[in-house]
Amino acid sequence: MLRVLGNILWFVLGGVLMGLAWWLAGLLALITIVGIPWARSCFVIGSFAFFPFGKEPVNRRDLTGRDDIGTGVLGLIGNIIWFIFAGIWLAIGHLMSALACFITIIGIPFGIQHLKLAMIALAPVGQTVVRSDTRFNTPLE
């Protein structure tokens, strides 16, 4: 019940803005055609940004126990390109939102979620989102 309440409060009090920012970044990446791999990450993490409570980001290598195209060298290169063009801006948005949330005691859990999202914003390729209670099961994609 607390998870549902937290997600509703999060969505109404600003989560919708950062979720839309992730989806906008995904749409811009789709337009370029070469940005399709980044777009997929944006949509998965954007959905997480809308309702983060009860979910957590994990590295796909940790989840599956093996490398894939996003967790190897190409993923590293993709994350460097992402950081330069979009990651830094999304991370700044989440950091500013976190600082605003930390002003009140009740906002501290929201600020912590923004900090998690800021870290993901720096390097989303190779990440996925899973339910917190079933961390090493299937992703939510």
Describe what you observe in this structure.
- The protein is mostly helical and 141 residues long.
- It has one domain.
- Helix content is 67%, strand content 7%.
- The chain is built from 5 helices and 2 strands.
- It has a two-stranded antiparallel ribbon.
- The chain is globular.
- The two termini are 23 Å apart.
- The mean pLDDT is 87.
Task: Characterize the overall form.
Answer: globular
Number of strands: 2
> Which strands sit side by side, in order, in the main sheet?
1-2
- Radius of gyration from the CA trace? 15 Å
Mean pLDDT: 87
Domain module tally = 1
* Computed structural class: mainly alpha
Largest sheet: 2 strands, antiparallel
Query: Number of DSSP helices?
Result: 5
Order of helices and strands: HHEHHHE
Helix content: 55-70%
Low-confidence stretches: none
Strand content: 5-15%
Distance between the termini: 23 Å
How are the SSEs ordered, and which strands pair?
Elements: H1 2-31, H2 36-50, E1 55-59, H3 60-64, H4 73-101, H5 108-122, E2 127-131
Antiparallel strand pairs: 1-2
Helix pairs in contact: 1-2, 1-4, 4-5
Structure keywords:
two-stranded antiparallel sheet, mainly alpha, 141 residues
